[in-house]
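Appendix B. Raw example, untouched.
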Amino acid sequence: MTLQTERLILRHWEDSDAEDMFRYAQDPDIGPIAGWPAHKDLDESRNIIANVVNGKEAYAICLKEDNKAIGCIELRFGDKTDLAEGDDECELGYWLGKPFWGRGIMPEAANEMIRHAFEDLGCSKVWCGYYDGNMKSKRVQEKLGFKYQWRSEDVDVPLMHEKRVGHVNLMTKEDWLSQKNKRVD
């Protein structure tokens, strides 16, 4: 499946995206703040594409102008999330290459994923979180209209072999519909 916005194509990852993924995922400002180590080499990015971002609802974020992967966005269900409680709930996760920060790309991509979750997949809730210090992710979630739920101390971050403070936000379908109706009015 492919999703589109005004400027973006959200499509499934392909083996040929490994170089683009590595270009951005090797940056120490990208993964570690989101809870995963910077990629060390192209093989690691290939492995991530084959084994991590291979889910049905994992998408490469691409600019329409060249269809090259500049980030990742995913809706996680079931055992891929510890936030969603029911089968009709999911967790939104994302990252974006640093050269594309501050251009409204992530809110644009996330808005489409949220629409997809509620309209196409029949979700009732979309959860999203961030770790202390990840102000960019916090800001994206605020712009999207997520509502703060709780803060957790000593959250395990297994890929980084550490514990952090985590913050959890939620958007219900009702909240989303209310926001959507306000934008139309």
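End of appendix B.
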